[in-house]
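quick one, 266 residues, struct below
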Amino acid sequence: MIRIMVTGRNRKIASDVCSHLETDRGYVPMKCQAAKTPLLDMVLSEMPHVIIVCAGNETADTVKVFDVLKESTKAGFSSIIVIANDEDKKTFINNTKLRKISFLARPVSLMALYTKLEEFEEKYKDNNSMDFSMITEFENEQEEFTRKHILVVDDEADQLAAIKENLAEFYEVTLINKGKNVFRYLEKYKVDLILLDYVMPEMDGPEVLKLLKAHPDYKDIPIVFLTGVSDKETVVKTLVELKPQGYILKPSKKSEMVAKIIDVLG
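---
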């Protein structure tokens, strides 16, 4: 069964949708506050297949909050359904950076919602897709990467958000919160450099680096460790053993981080 996350400013509709999903179809939806850090943290940790956004009196700023979901949808890990009236739909389309959105009109047709969820069940099972006229879809035109593509791997959502904010002006930035997910991403996309957290649960930075070095397609990707001051001596030993392109101490200034990337990539 697909994993569903429900969020949005319209709490009444969000609550009603969650209730119907549980009662009618047996889903156990995850509820999330419509704010950047909670959204990013839940998406990275839970990796929901479907994210339902219950829109309500949206503005350009409230719509941009959901841009933190861009990497997850771009990588094909998640799909977005926005429940909105005509005005909120226009606001979303005019201000979002999300690549693809399925819009469901209010008042909500539960049959249309369930039909779309069945489509996603098939999509994430065997990648089949179908069109349903009761739900309209919006797709942004995406430009090919013209800037260097940086993959940032860290288990702390706040750290990821801060790094993206520092680098987004200069680079295309993708965020991942688990070492094992690096390889899933690299199967689909090319990156120019990986900023890799040294200490992570399950699979730490050195372990990820060893696996990358052993893979013929990934062995030449430049790696820069992200590390706290307390780990500096251990990291230096790893530099000698595994030969990454260096390390950045956390927290680091924007200028220091960009300078290190320029030093590695030119």
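Residues 127-136 have pLDDT under 50 and may be disordered.
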